[in-house]
Amino acid sequence: MTACSANQDLDCHMKELTKEDKLDIHFPDVCRSNDEEQPSRKPTDQNDLALLLRTINFAAQKHSFQRRKDPEKTPYINHPIGVAHILASEGGITDVKVLQAAILHDTVEDTDTTLDEIEEEFGATIRHTVEEVTDKKALSYQERKAHQIARAPLVSERAKLVKLGDKLHNLRDLQRVRPVDWSQERVHQYFIWSGKVIEGLIGTNLPLEEKLRQLLATEDVILPTERKALSILEPSVSPSL
Ligand SMILES: Nc1nc2c(ncn2[C@@H]2O[C@H](COP(=O)(O)OP(=O)(O)O)[C@@H](OP(=O)(O)OP(=O)(O)O)[C@H]2O)c(=O)[nH]1
Description:
Layout: H1 10-16, H2 19-22, H3 48-62, H4 78-89, H5 96-104, H6 107-110, H7 115-122, H8 124-132, H9 141-151, H10 157-176, H11 184-199, H12 206-217
Helix pairs in contact: 3-5, 4-5, 4-10, 5-8, 5-10, 7-8, 9-11, 10-11, 10-12
The chain binds guanosine-5',3'-tetraphosphate.
């Protein structure tokens, strides 16, 4: 929250502005009450559409040498764009920060992009959301998978939305074609594991959850109707609860 009252002069407001808001100086609605909520807008981003296109361009460059695991070696960028498209067209999401985070969600995990770079380009909110959906590479495969299940109910609403879109896109991809070297059993195990992650996201977006429910059922994975209870091992949960 800014410490300046509405009547105080511009100097006071300027001192309160973060680095990212200062970049926004060309826009009339520059003085806002919640700095954390605002993305960095370089002067060339005249509106959300320009910002979204800059985000897609950034991700496309970062993923340019990466391919999906399918036999056709689909360009990797199809996945993050597909996730953002699912969120907008099927989840009804209009929050541009969610769509940006969806487009950027694998840049840190799968390319040389750093979180500092994300913040520099797109602001602290996008950095935070991308960080929330980024697996920690230092963990083993099994630890990463367990960590995703445990973290799902604890992350922000924006991160939960990105996760729902991510899982829906990956599961649909698996139904379309099996990745090279994946057995049918591995596909089935991915459905089971995804169901456990999604359980922690229930209550975030009904249309997406309904589609995930139907998709998971094709592999006999049944989603409960209520969100997974928080584990007492999670730090944000009081041991006395
Ligand atoms: N279904 C599918 N997935 C592919 C394909 N190519 C790459 N992937 C990626 O593979 C990951 C799932 O494979 P795993 O073996 O379980 O995990 P890992 O690659 O991250 O170690 C997903 O990463 P992720 O997006 O980080 O998601 P998640 O593992 O966190 O769900 C998914 O995006 C493909 O052709 N089809």
